[in-house]
Amino acid sequence: ASAVVFTAGCVLVAVAPVMPVVTAGLILSGIGKQGIAVVAISLVASRLVSENDRATGFAMIGLAGPIVFLTAPVAASVLLDHTSWRVVVACCVPFGVVALLVSRLMLPADDSRDPGGEMWTPALAGFILVCLVRWITTASNDGIFASVTLAWLTGGLVRSEEHTSELQSRV
Asked: Which of 22, 37, 113, 144 pairs as cysteine with 16 (C-beta 3.0–4.6 A)?
């Protein structure tokens, strides 16, 4: 489900006619992206049983982040020289499709749990990410102490703190 949400968010951003639709697409893709990360960690935890294999699996996940953060801006800038920003966002769609296929093939079916899964954590992570990105954007446009800037920062931090407290109360 997370890969579908991510892919839908990317498509929505790519075809968005106005900025609020872009924001909605970013929220969806952020939620989906966090869910995909949870699935990747679940794959490592469920498929790799020996300590060495698990360590290698988690190291590969840890290695993927910096590689993406180093190569994606370069690839995006090359694409932007020749195409629209919408094409750059649309290039994320195949990654969502691959994540969906890999999760369907690799994760075992679990009939004992709710098929919807726990989506609040990735949803809130996506919301917090959007708030922080909007905070940075509005800070550069309107100033760091503008009311709209502080509203985005407050929204992200308050929701983050509420969710952290809720998770700690479960433990």
From this structure: 22
